[in-house]
Amino acid sequence: MVVNIAVIGSGFGMYGLLxxxxxxxxxxxxxxxxxxxxxxxxxxxxxxxxxxxxxKKMIDEERLDAIAIAVVPKYxxxxxxxxxxxxxxxxxxxxxxxxxxxxYELNFIATEKKIPNMLDFIFPEIPEWLExxxxxxxxxxxxxxxxxxxxxxxxxxxxxxxxxxKTNIDDGGGAISLYFSHVLYYLENFLxxxxxxxxxxxxxxxxxxxxxxxxxxxxxxENGCNGKIILDIAQIKxxxxxxxxxxxxxxxxxxxTTSVIDGFELQVNKLGKIQKIIPKxxxxxxxxxxxxxxxxxxxxxxNRFIDWCKNGFEARPNFExxxxxxxxxIKTKEISQKEKP
Length: 341
Known about the structure:
Elements: E1 3-8, H1 12-22, E2 27-33, H2 38-47, E3 50-52, H3 55-61, E4 66-69, H4 73-85, E5 89-92, H5 100-113, E6 117-119, H6 127-137, E7 144-154, H7 156-159, H8 174-191, E8 194-202, E9 214-221, E10 226-232, E11 234-246, E12 249-255, E13 265-270, E14 273-277, H9 295-311, H10 319-335, E15 337-339
Parallel strand pairs: 1-2, 1-4, 2-3, 4-5, 5-6, 7-10, 8-15
Antiparallel strand pairs: 7-11, 8-9, 9-10, 11-12, 12-13, 13-14
Helix pairs in contact: 1-9, 4-5, 5-10, 8-10
């Protein structure tokens, strides 16, 4: 069976999802919906796909098994629901929607109708992260007692003072929904469900639309592990570190490069002996430097999604986990205080 899929989105949908799905065997990308730009025309020609400017018309006219969406979060709900009601599988961006109610509805429809559904949470697909996950699951350093996360960088929109949906909370932007959704997902992916959390929003004095630009959080997992999290998207210095402290040592994932995906190192300190771990797996090499580096970690997700569409093998992360992240986002916003700049 060949899975016919269409892409919706003029940004990452065009330069991220389209190339990723085009690399998959038994996946036929038939069309893309987005703005009529010269860049879009080049991508359509390169990947031999039809172009639409109306997503609803595209879904109605094409014989699709699935769609892949990368649009402003506040618009994703309507598109995903329309496709699900036509029994079309949906590969969506995070956050799933901008509210718990709409996320719940999408998850309910997809679950009840048993339609393939996945979310683009990319970090756990990085080889060093996969290796760290194996070490934690195998109790290599014993029970995890504490996790410390520090993710700091200067977002493109803040740096260039761009008033876009990414800085507009109502549209699904802001540091909490756009970036912290990744953290909430990967924390529970590593350590299980979060039980309690307390947090303070960070608001950069030049914040566009007066939205939050970061968060400091203390949390407790159901398994008893404690966590301290710092996310700040208004820092010139860039770093993304995850430190897991266990009964017999620690596991450190760190990236001090300007790349979101590439550059992570995995280090283990067990009983005072420090060693660098090189993953046994590697990222697929069917890429060139002109492509967005995130395609490398979208591809394994896209492969699992297509396999679900083709063979019925359920895959994760799915809408249920997107709903859980939305629940945590709302809880975070409800209990958080705002730090003055």
